[in-house]
Design a protein that fits this description.
Structural class: mainly alpha
Number of helices: 4
Shape: elongated
Oligomer: single chain
Distance between the termini: 24 Å
Number of domains: 1
Radius of gyration: 14 Å
Helix content: over 70%
Largest sheet: none
Length: 101
């Protein structure tokens, strides 16, 4: 990932997984969405554990972002069932936009 700092690498990998998850959500793939969110959560937790300052320097409130990821993971089963019956999008998982800063 272009850095030898393990916390920074985990942060970038987590953000990439998060973005990939939303690609799956837009495409209506709840399994891909959930798996990428789980991977994002794991990488972001690793970054926070190794050096919380890396995210702070990048102006990312990592605990708040992790909270949003957890909320969306919890909403996946119900959203997937609703999307399957109504043809709706998985992207509309929570009514409020995320506040990560």
């Amino acid at each position: 990932m272009g850095t030898s700092d393990l916390a920074e690498r985990a942060l970038y990998q987590g953000l990439i997984k998060l973005a990939a998850g939303y690609v799956h959500a837009v495409r209506g793939n709840p399994i891909g969405f959930a798996r990428n969110l789980q991977g994002a959560r794991d990488h972001l937790h690793t970054s926070l554990r190794l050096n919380a300052r890396v995210a702070t320097v990048a102006d990312i409130d990592l605990p708040a972002l992790l909270s949003e990821v957890e909320a969306r993971l919890a909403a996946v089963p119900e959203a997937a069932a609703t999307a399957a019956t109504t043809g709706g999008l998985l992207i509309n998982l929570l009514p409020d936009p995320p506040r990560i800063r």
